[in-house]
Amino acid sequence: MSNALATKTAITCENCNLDKLCIPKGMKRSEVGELKLLVNRNNIRQKGEAIYHSGSPFRGIIALRSGTAKLLSFDRNGNEIIVDFILPGELLGFDGVSAQIHNCTAIALETVNFCHLTSRQIETLTLSTPGFYQILLQRSCNQFDIQVEKLLLSRRSAEERVAAFILHISERLKIRGYSELEFRLSMSREEIGNHLGIAHETVSRIVHHFQSLEIIEIKAKQLKITNKKKLFSFYKD
Amino acid sequence: MSNALATKTAITCENCNLDKLCIPKGMKRSEVGELKLLVNRNNIRQKGEAIYHSGSPFRGIIALRSGTAKLLSFDRNGNEIIVDFILPGELLGFDGVSAQIHNCTAIALETVNFCHLTSRQIETLTLSTPGFYQILLQRSCNQFDIQVEKLLLSRRSAEERVAAFILHISERLKIRGYSELEFRLSMSREEIGNHLGIAHETVSRIVHHFQSLEIIEIKAKQLKITNKKKLFSFYKD
DNA sequence: CGACGCTTTGAGGAGATTCAAGACACGTGG
DNA sequence: CCACGTGTCTTGAATCTCCTCAAAGCGTCG
Fold it and tell me: Residue A32 is inside which H or E element, if any?
């Protein structure tokens, strides 16, 4: 059992990120059952398979129930640029809303299981749940805040970026109820570097450096944060 | 007359960016008059004055009628990081939608005149204009596409970034009906560098380099693109 | 067990930064 | 209208961070 994430019960409507769009904002708990019926569950993709492709028509929002994915675009030379990693319980597909055509490609980093809320189903929800659209709007404007956060990060040193990366993953896993101090990094060094805008060799060197400072323990993809405070000081100092 | 922008008639509801939110998407031309009555026009800020501050409550969307502004955040040391420049006819304020608190500060780079569509007025429009919310959603998800564009740009050389910066400004001015080949850069080299993530000395050197290649002519803040094709090749090759 | 891909480690080099100093532009007041 | 001062812009030189290239180590999976 190498994948710590897989040991937890799969994400359901009640604990997936979509709940933030339903339960707290006017949608009654009883209605969540309705949502359950609405949503297409148990879609599977194997490692390396695409969930959707850049250029394909937008078909709705996706929620990862288990597994991890990468969201990527391509530069003018056709090299992939990893825009984000999507962790279990997180949402995917907003890159298709604006133009109704996906701007990015989503690829499974390991076997993933996901729900699919189609455009039509979103319409249904909009009608039955007043405020649903407003929530979608807030959620997507949230992208703006995230964008600013990423901009700030892009100005910082390679070391600070790696520290921030580990802390962000940790925080996001924690929110969904996973262990925040010990988890598996499903992505390669190459993919981490790509996402952070640094060479994979640099990632390797920094991870090694953090280990020698006894901030983390890392063996292959399994990561353990042993001194979160110190790691955080790398990011915030 | 040093400011080429000021020579054009001021932006009105009919040619401001907001029109994209109304006319093409279900709002009849006749209703635009209604919008005119709704909107608070002729707000003024002098150079250096804030339009809104980070941390202040969201009060609605703003459309610049004339003048230029910068949208900024602060890093952990309190240094400003310029998230974007806002040109005449463009919209401002989406950084406050998600949390209902502004995430950024907007400051006039020269005297600006702007319209203000308050949250309440947005509500009114939502009720009277079906699909208005959907359009706002698309507009804000558009942020996602822009974010990807910026991510790609952040991976490129300083020279490519400056080329892209000039071309982007040119394109945005063109869309609003201004000259695309000759315009005034209201922001300082320092501010350009800040925005692009490079030192202001580097901006200076690159601008000088482009001049020596006869791609642009620049005198103080006045810019003329003399070889757009070549400039574009710097960006896309 | 062997092959392949991923990761680590080292050496050298390129691009951009930082620091420093001088040129220029602009607005102010005499 | 010009002299002056301040802030912006330019230019040069030294330095640094991170990249690229290269090769070896390690793990994983057929």
Answer: helix A29-38
Q: Is B205 domain-assigned?
A: yes
A158 touches chain B (CB under 8 A): no
Indicate whether B167 and B144 sit together in one domain.
no
* Joined tokens for residue B95: 């950084």
Structural domain for A225, as ranges: 158-233
Q: What is the pLDDT of residue A21?
A: 46
pLDDT of A25 reads 42
Q: Are residues B26 and B107 in the same domain?
A: yes
Residue A75 covered by a domain:
yes
Q: Are A144 and B97 in contact (CB under 8 A)?
A: yes
A73 with B138: Cβ contact below 8 A:
no
B45 and B135 in a single domain? The answer is yes
Q: What confidence score (pLDDT) does residue A206 get?
A: 98
Q: CB-CB: which of B75, B103, B144 is closest to A98?
A: B144
B123 and B104 inside one domain: yes
Whether A19 and A109 share a structural domain = yes
pLDDT at B26: 44
Residues in B touching A236 (Cβ below 8 Å): 76
pLDDT of A101 reads 95
Nearest to B56 by CA among B120, B92, B99: B99
How many domains are contained in chain A? 2
What's the full length of chain B, in residues? Answer: 237
pLDDT under 70: residue ranges of chain A: 1-39, 129-131
In 3D, which of B223, B215, B213, B214 has the Cα closest to residue B192? B223
A113, B69 Cβ separation under 8 angstroms: no
User: What pLDDT was estimated at residue A36?
Assistant: 61
**CA B39 → C1' D8, Å?**
38
My answer on whether B20 and B94 are in the same domain is yes
Contact A140 B141 (CB under 8 A): yes
Report pLDDT for A5.
Answer: 42
Q: Is residue A57 part of a domain?
A: yes
Task: Pick out chain B residues at pLDDT < 70.
Answer: 1-39, 129-131
A75–B144 C-beta distance less than 8 A: no
